[in-house]
């Protein structure tokens, strides 16, 4: 136990899991009431508003959470200048993305031309795009921002329970969640400036971040397609109720992704260091965590698939019965995404093979979008889930093939006993 406490990966993973478990407990409290009050139509509006914010937020974030975390872990002395450069890059991206986002919200079919939904979604975009969590992750001291995030999420969710009364209050759900997320983003800004002092962003620094983080931006762009773009594409062919059914299944499956996330977040800065300092130790660390994360998430996916009906019934009610079969398919996205993360983010990225990883993601994103167009009309939300899982399978398989070909696939070395 003492060795675990002394291990920074284990310590940070512990606090990340505490935060994630706290965050996962919140839906079990609010979803049974919220999903029934909003009805599938109103819930579908919330899903679309969050999808737009998440997709645009990933573009504004530009992969900086990965690029800056890796750079800070390798060079802690750069933190003041790096923070200013990342902020400058994100401000430039917001100027580029913001007007397009507002025009899409006002003129597109997603947010019902409702400025309450559009403005709430835009506020959520800012919170997601400007999060300074990377600053604390890169220094492996994540407790304070994680605690703040959980407390604000509890507060905003409590207000949702008391304030939301019907399907017309979907905009209130989006705004309350956005306010909590804004607090989680900008209170840590105060902590950073009190600790390191303010350094003004510069054009050259922002440009450097945009150039050096481009490969990670491609990764984030493909992640946006998987997480949000496909939902927005699906909305062109489906009703708000069908989107609500898919969103219900996706919320449950996301719980599995959230449980996988902490160990991956805690591992990334350590792997970024070890790959340079001790490649053999990095390989051993990845091999063990690969087996634990991918194997554990596969077991969890089977359990969720078997319990899909009672889970959907408890959390969402009979109106969302169509989500049951969707969840049985979507549950297997979790081990596939975990496998892709371990092979790509934790190994290929630290080894400088971002381009190969991104090419595979681009192919997977194109395949996913194509299948959504082909299957959404005929199969509805089930076709959407099948498209996502098929694309994830393609990506995971190709990543494994690349890792094996270049000799960087994680393997466990077994030393025979000596006599």
Structure description:
By secondary structure, this protein is mostly helical. The chain is 83% helix and 0% strand. α2 crosses α11, α11 runs parallel beside α17 and α13 crosses α14. The protein is globular, with a radius of gyration of 21 Å. The C terminus is likely disordered.
Give the tags.
17 helices, globular, mainly alpha, 419 residues, single chain, disordered C terminus
> What's the alpha carbon Rg, rounded to whole Å?
21 Å
Q: Strand share of the residues? A: under 5%
List the helices and strands in order: HHHHHHHHHHHHHHHHH
General form: globular
Structural class: mainly alpha
Helix content: over 70%
Low-confidence stretches: 411-419
Ends: how far apart?
A: 31 Å
Q: How many E strands?
A: 0
Largest sheet: none
Average of the residue pLDDT scores: 82
Helices, by number, come to 17
Fold topology:
Blueprint: H1 2-6, H2 8-61, H3 64-74, H4 79-107, H5 115-129, H6 133-138, H7 143-163, H8 170-196, H9 203-212, H10 214-234, H11 240-277, H12 279-306, H13 308-315, H14 323-330, H15 333-348, H16 354-379, H17 381-405
Give the structure's gist in a few sentences:
By secondary structure, this protein is mostly helical. Helices cover 83% and strands 0% of the residues. It is globular, with a radius of gyration of 21 Å.
């Amino acid at each position: 136990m003492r060795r675990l406490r002394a291990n920074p990966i284990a310590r940070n993973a512990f606090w990340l899991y505490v935060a994630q478990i706290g965050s996962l407990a919140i839906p079990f409290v609010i979803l049974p009431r919220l999903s029934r009050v909003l009805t599938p139509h109103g819930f579908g509006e919330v899903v679309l508003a969050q999808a737009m914010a998440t997709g645009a937020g990933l573009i504004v974030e530009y992969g900086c959470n990965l690029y800056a975390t890796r750079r800070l872990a390798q060079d802690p002395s750069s933190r003041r200048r790096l923070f200013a450069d990342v902020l400058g890059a994100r401000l430039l991206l917001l100027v580029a993305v913001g007007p397009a986002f507002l025009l899409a919200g006002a003129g597109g079919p997603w947010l019902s031309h409702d400025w309450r939904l559009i403005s709430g979604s835009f506020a959520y975009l800012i919170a997601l795009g400007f999060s300074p969590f990377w600053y604390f992750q890169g220094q492996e001291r994540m407790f304070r921002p994680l605690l703040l995030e959980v407390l604000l999420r509890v507060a905003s969710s409590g207000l949702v329970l008391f304030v939301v009364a019907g399907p017309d209050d979907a905009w209130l759900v989006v705004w309350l969640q956005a306010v909590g997320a804004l607090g989680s983003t900008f209170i840590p800004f105060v902590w950073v400036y009190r600790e390191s002092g303010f350094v003004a962003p510069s054009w050259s620094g922002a440009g450097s971040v945009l150039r050096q983080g481009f490969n990670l931006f491609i990764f984030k762009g493909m992640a946006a397609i998987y997480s949000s773009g496909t939902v927005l594409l699906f909305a062109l062919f489906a009703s708000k109720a069908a989107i609500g059914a898919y969103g219900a299944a996706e919320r449950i499956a996301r719980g599995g992704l959230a449980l996988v996330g902490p160990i991956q977040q805690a591992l990334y800065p350590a792997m970024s260091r070890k790959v340079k300092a001790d490649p053999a130790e990095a390989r051993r660390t990845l091999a063990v965590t690969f087996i634990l994360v991918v194997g554990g998430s596969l077991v969890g996916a089977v359990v969720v698939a078997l319990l899909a009906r009672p889970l959907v019934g408890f959390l969402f009610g009979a109106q969302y019965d169509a989500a049951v079969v969707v969840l049985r398919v979507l549950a297997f996205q979790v081990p596939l995404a975990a496998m892709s993360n371990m092979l790509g983010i934790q190994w290929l990225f630290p080894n400088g093979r971002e381009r190969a990883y991104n090419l595979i993601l681009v192919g997977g994103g194109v395949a996913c979008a194509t299948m959504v167009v082909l299957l959404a009309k005929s199969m509805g939300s089930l076709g959407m889930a099948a498209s996502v899982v098929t694309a994830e399978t393609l990506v995971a398989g190709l990543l494994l093939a690349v890792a094996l070909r270049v000799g960087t696939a994680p393997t466990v070395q077994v030393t025979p006993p000596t006599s």
